[in-house]
Predict the 3D structure of the following.
Amino acid sequence: MDESDFSSELQDRLDDRRAGSSKGTLALSEQEGYVGDELTLLGRNLSADEQYDLVWHTSDGRWAVIEANRVVGPQYSPRTEPIATVRTDESGEFDETWTIPEDYGGSHKITVENDEGVAARAEFEVRPWFELDRTQTELGEAFVVRGYGIGPSLESNNFQIAWDNQFVGFITGVINRGTATARIRAVGPPGEHVIQVWRNYRGVPFVANNTQSPLGSVGGDRANAWTVEVTEPDSSPPTMWVDELFEEQPFEAHYPELDADTEAELEIAPQCGPAGTQAIITGRNFPPNAAVDLKWYQHVGEGIRGLEVTPTVRPGILPTVTADADGRFQVEFEIPPAEGSTRPILAEVDGRSVAATGFMMQPSIETFEPTSGPVGTEIEIELSGIGWTAYESAPFFVYDNAPLGYACGTSEDLRSPTVRTVLQATGEPGYHFIDVYPSIFEMEDDEPEFEIRPHLSYLDNHPVRPLPACHMVFEVTEE
């Protein structure tokens, strides 16, 4: 028995002691089911004409992250949700119908409680299941796979998605109460293809899921594989784009320490965006008429080689300004291509830093060329806004839904603030799709295995920030 099972059993014994001799019976119309199912709860052998609370016992999930950088792993804590308040009849009975909410999979306790304690309890098993938003779409568009009842147990914490028997990436429901969403690119050739969901805590498909797994089939008696049709597009797909960006704020934990504690203030507007964003830095409460050196910081280092990643001034980005007689100044500049996450900006007076602000750098595609050519064409890709933190420093490149490999979002070279690579064009003549998904470079917990794999539920379940993916389309032509 593991620690969580022991704690649950201990709590049950305490509940029994609190309940005393007033224990009743709680029966369920089903012992297991899926999110969205209707469940009938039958209370029997309870006190007559008595009010009771029906309570759903579950978990809250989060990613444990240190200093908004190092990912420890998924962690869960107990949570309860009210189901309903009921009153028994003269026979001490009640019937209550309830719909299973979006929540984690696994066993959930349901209790009948009043001021005297727990009067009855039952267990209900939530099974994971998956749905596909459509079975036909144009080449280059996306099929949306949504999973419910994922985790939190180790064996069901993440599921994997395959396209035509090719592993694409994983989904997990850590911070979204067991629900996860993935977009799977419709890649060619036009015609019928297969999307399938697999399960394995190692982060890659265990292909005996539906034949020899002690956990039973993926999705229970519901579909976990679909035949889909990819059709010819009505028009040429866009050449490149980035997912919609969110409003964000920088992390002060990533600022360098100031040399002096003064009244000086520094702020930037907007606080987030990609390279090319026009931003305004405003300073207040500086010494009147003082020369203020503004410093843009880049995180430099290569953890894989044992070099600590530290904020280091990148010269030539920001100017020296002069405060007015009231100690104010304002300067406009264009956000340069840079590594992602928080870009600290410090203000120095007489060589000492006295104020700080930061800009949350978001992804952009700086270079994608050429956009067409025969097989073997070298495709140069340069991305800005790819961060140095463990949860965003390893963008994973996927070509036609086949994972190729990852790049690194940090460097020990101040002149290399972007991610650059060269790929070879492959495939039959026509459109081919390059998707760059977030991944987790390092995680301190060994299991489940999330490291350096395309994270397909990046928008609703990625650690710390909902990172966007980058998308590009290359047309392979005849020789």
Summary: The mean pLDDT is 92. The domain at 252-361 is CATH 2.60.40.1930 (Immunoglobulin-like). The first helix runs from residue 3 to 19. The chain has three domains: 3-126, 129-244+363-476, 252-361.
